[in-house]
Amino acid sequence: MVKRDERLQEELQFHLDQQIAKNIRNGMTPAEARRSALVKFGGVEPMREAARDQWRGTWLFDLGRDMRVGLRALARVPTFAVTVILTFALGIGAAVAMFSVFEGVLLRPLTLPEPDRVVRLFQINGGGNRNAVSEPNFNDWRDGTTSFAAMAQFSPWGQVPVAGAGDAQLASLTVVSRHFFDVMGVRPVLGRSFVAEEQQVGAAGVAIVSAEFWRRWRGDEAPQGEVLRSGTTTYTVVGVMPDGFDYPVGTSIWTPREQAPPQTGRTAHNFQVIARLANDVSLERAQTELSALSRQLKTVHGDRTSMIDATALPLLDVLTGTSRPTLRLLFAASLLLLVVACTNVSNLLMVRSGARRAEFAVQLALGATAGRIGRQLLAETLVVCLVGAALGVAAATAAVRLFVAMGPATVQRLDGVSVSGPGLLFAVCVSVLAATVLSLVTAAGARSVRIADALADTTRSGTGSRRQMRVREGLIVTQVALTMALLAGAALLGRSLHAVTQVDPGFSLDDGLILSFTIPSDGTPDALTRQVALQDAVVARLRAQPGVETVGLINAFPLSADGFFPNGTFIEMTRPDEITTFDGFDRWAPDVKARSGQARFRKVSADYFRAMDIPLKRGRLIDDRDAPNGTHVAVISQSLADTQWPGRDPLGRWIQFGNMDGDLRAIEIVGIVGDVRELSPESQPAPALYVSARQRPRQAGRASVIVRGPSPGTLAESARRIVREVDPEVPATTTTVSAALDVILSARRFTAWLIGAFGTAALILATLGVYGLFAFTVSQRTREMGIRMALGAEPRSLVWLVVRRGLVLASVGAVIGVVVSRLGSDTLAAQLYNVSPGDPVTIGGAIVAMVLISCLASYAPARRILKQTPGRTWRDV
Amino acid sequence: MATRLDKEAAAILQGTLDMLVLRALQLEPMHGWGITERIEQWSEEVLCVGQGTLYPALYRLERQGLIVSDWQTTENNRRARYYRLTPAGRKHLTQEIRDWQRMSRAINLVLQAAKG
User: Fold this and answer.
1) What pTM, to 2 d.p., does this model score?
2) Phi-psi category of A118—alpha, beta or left, where left has phi over 0 and alpha has psi -120 to 50?
3) How many helices (H) and strands (E) does chain B have?
4) Which residues of B touch A20 (CB under 8 A)?
5) Sequence-distant (≥ 6) Cβ neighbours of residue B60 within 8 angstroms
């Protein structure tokens, strides 16, 4: 623009100079020539304005001017302006915040090269569920497919105690096979990757660590043979991964899988598989190839594999699978709120444009076109939307920060989510769309302005344009419908949350301290003896603390969020020494196989059931008589007894469960206890078998201790200290039963509260909307009411006239609301517990609430009719 | 007298300025000053194009794609902006002239009929 102005200046100067030259040629003196030329030239500035008008995008320029006018017009009605802008800001803020979270978690690409080519592969077993993979199956996949550039298996070991790297600590360790880092497309930034000599049985332990782990320990320098220790195993650090790489989520230490012997069992599903699609291979093609190969493997290996099919899924989908329905629901709810907010804004704008009919009429009379007035309305709406959107985005930024800080622990990838590019783009698109729709709706109401009518109207108050009234009533119906749907959803989620907290999980939810620690062990008898001694010592010292009533120990505590819940297949034996090897099912006779069953395998201390308040149903509990060298005993859950031995007595039967912990001694069932819902109150109780942690200490090095008695807060510090004193290299963490339960319920609670908040906001807006409409109607019909009263109408019947209209609108809205909530019921159903999406009580309650509130909101303005006297009404006219 | 003529000239130019500018550019590219001079000269000093209307008209015609401009050096070695007709401008001018001639013939016919 500046350059253009300069050129124009130069061009005009040239013109002037030519004129002066001509004047001189015609015999004027230079001074005279100049003055004359300037006079002839006229005002330079108006000319430049006129010239500029020709090159500016005139329409845009005028819109800008209209917006300035609109801004000034809004400033004259500050209450109106603030209301409209805040309403719009609320709607857009909620939508932008939810969109940003939705996008940031579910859509934002992973920070890997070509992240959409990274896929997770799963076996599909008999039940149809995705399953971990056995090594022989993985090897066949890797060697028998061409769709993948690289394929690797890994196995997260969870938190292991690590010594040698500063203070004793817990760190997540994952064992990875040869091509793991090729699949991820990420290399160590310091040091190097594993080399072939390190990837074989018997090689010295090596590790690659995460940047965060390394920074805490060594800073920025390259690794120089630093050694980590976990129990008796040592790892030399050879490489450090780049910042932010911690896959599988939270991993700090990666070690080569090949250092352990290959696994030969096709049913030992011990590995996760990840792969990178080859160039130009689509996910569908890879899926087809993998699936065909897997079905072929089933025909070749028959019973030796439980795999019937396989599936390939994008890594991102697998990572975010559990949070997807929650976030989708929240985003959908925020969009409903946005629409409710927009209907309110539209209603307010329409009231204002109604009040300005006279102004428009004057403009029309003075020659403005209808389009010109429409453009002015658009400009005003645009001002409202832009200012509202700016406020909304600011609010959304804060809201997203809050969401990231307080959001449910179960939502992955929340870190780093903010209102950024996509969120802003969304905000702009939605604002522009909203502004366009709003001004179209408003203009539709205003288009009926006829000069004569409108001018005449200024002196009398009629009922406003019938058409505008219809549009406004339509908006109210929409608002009521969407609000009802939101309220019904929030109520359903609230009832589900309540239902979940009311479930008896089978153990006491009274608060208690949960102390978790892992004693590293290489499985040698000495190490196991030491482990039992250390665990006994910790338990004994805790029991000696003042106020402590009972202390129980288990290797997989219910409610623990890390999801370590070992389960497997056992065999019922006819005599204790029937089976003394466990080489795989395929070698067993069919009659032995028929005696197998599935159960969760838990290792507990004698006091565990008392500490957890798990009732003994029959037989006896594990107790101190059950010494390590005595007969191994087990207590089973009621559901295992019912499913495995229906109508028969399980007590005294012998079990072989050595495939789980490598201990092949027979286990005798001595008691039956109540069922426990382990994962969360809403999970189903699963058949479980409990053995003594002292008799079978293998794979019980990782344990949680529940302490009942004193308030957990006072005990936490001393509990951790006790573990540290018993073994300084064993890091311990503490939590409480209520905190663990909070984590499990967090997503449900969070969703219910947030949608409840959206519903409440929508309800307030809808109430204001209904109130506003009827306040307007009543004020417009004052004269009519006055006439009716003068003619003898009962004031009550006039009030009823107004309220009845409110009732009709609310009822229509509620009916549509039922339809809307039916549409969303699929998304909602996944989040509900013990309540159906169409629950008549909840839906009915929401309908009644909406109708009642609409009645109140229309009654409040209608009451003013009662205060009118015919005389006053006439005078007002 | 001159002022009265100017006013009349301005009145006449309403609506026909674009055609006159295009016509002035028909033979060769010219700068704004040249166009005013050319029109004044051809109209035997009757038509005088004010700068206030000329430049907006030039920018308008340029925006409509009827003329294009570039900066060149004049014979006196000064930089000036030269305008020239585009093919669309040429076509437009032909059409304008045809319309004008039909119109002025019609008007003349009416005037002469009234005389007779």
Assistant:
1) 0.71
2) beta
3) 5, 3
4) none
5) A54, B18
